[in-house]
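2024-03-11 09:14:02 INFO receiving multi-entity request
2024-03-11 09:14:02 INFO entity count = two
2024-03-11 09:14:03 INFO echoing inputs for audit
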Amino acid sequence: MELLEQRILADGRLLPGGILKVDNFLNHQMDPMLLQAIAKEWKRLFDGEGVNKILTIEASGIAMAILVGLEFGCPVVFAKKSKTKNLSDSLYQTEVPSFTHGNTNTVVVSKAYLGPGDRVLLIDDFLATGAALIGLKALVEQAGATLVGAGAAIEKRFQGGGDKLREAGVRVESLARIVEMDDTGIKFG
Amino acid sequence: MELLEQRILADGRLLPGGILKVDNFLNHQMDPMLLQAIAKEWKRLFDGEGVNKILTIEASGIAMAILVGLEFGCPVVFAKKSKTKNLSDSLYQTEVPSFTHGNTNTVVVSKAYLGPGDRVLLIDDFLATGAALIGLKALVEQAGATLVGAGAAIEKRFQGGGDKLREAGVRVESLARIVEMDDTGIKFG
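2024-03-11 09:21:47 INFO inference complete, emitting structure
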């Protein structure tokens, strides 16, 4: 998606350690018009697939997900980071390791909001190791719901998560795919 | 706002301890069409006030805030819960006690995304003790920005936060104001 790639080149910042900061338009300060354009692109890509639920993970996926939900006219659920590891009968839960923070979060979704009738589209801002989307996929499986696919705004292909998901049979549509980034710049492909 | 009050009566659940659960349409599973109607109502109420930035707090305020930002055509910033209490030169920060969880969060906003030129509208899903909005107000003051007002979807008036903010001179526009709730039901006013 040309619009997103150009914005990354204009406003993204590369930090040491393979970190791409896009917090001036995507995940701290957010540009609603850009996010709406992203949502409309996923609507175009997944149109006709019978999507009737959007699933994301707090916090930075929520803004995109609600705009995607508006396009599809369906409910949006966000998996919550739980403070407890205790199993609850009323929750689906899984563990999601964080690349950025070096810890693992227990994330949960109420059983009331995900079930066998759901055709689910996963949405997140970043796809790197794939941990977040793999966690969301596990929640969809626990619920007996159908996974239609996953939309990630920015995929860092060199971290392998996207290809791991594709090999597992998930349709992944990322809108800016970074194949290489270093001090000299960012290469899409 | 009739639409929101009716939805609370239809789908909200009262739990012991003064908790109103609206997690089937507002803050776990979310209805994007309802949230858009809420955003349009705030646009109507704060139109002509020169709002050029929306500020909310993660996680449950983000969905409403991005839709409000879309209405105003301006950036949306969400204050992040910080894992450290260490002061950073690049961040505004304040403490926000949580009524629901009984703890206190340090919340931060990058200085790059809030400044003297900003006319800020605060957005959140709930207004009870007012702690979250009071924290966001403190961040706006640290930045030297102008606080235009605050929009809360549901105000629990009997917890006093809204009136405290109004007495401090903040224009607060809540869309469903609960004056009483107990086993027998919810009273708006």
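2024-03-11 09:21:48 INFO post-check: The two ends of chain A are 11 Å apart (CA to CA).
2024-03-11 09:21:48 INFO post-check: Chain A has a mean pLDDT of 95.
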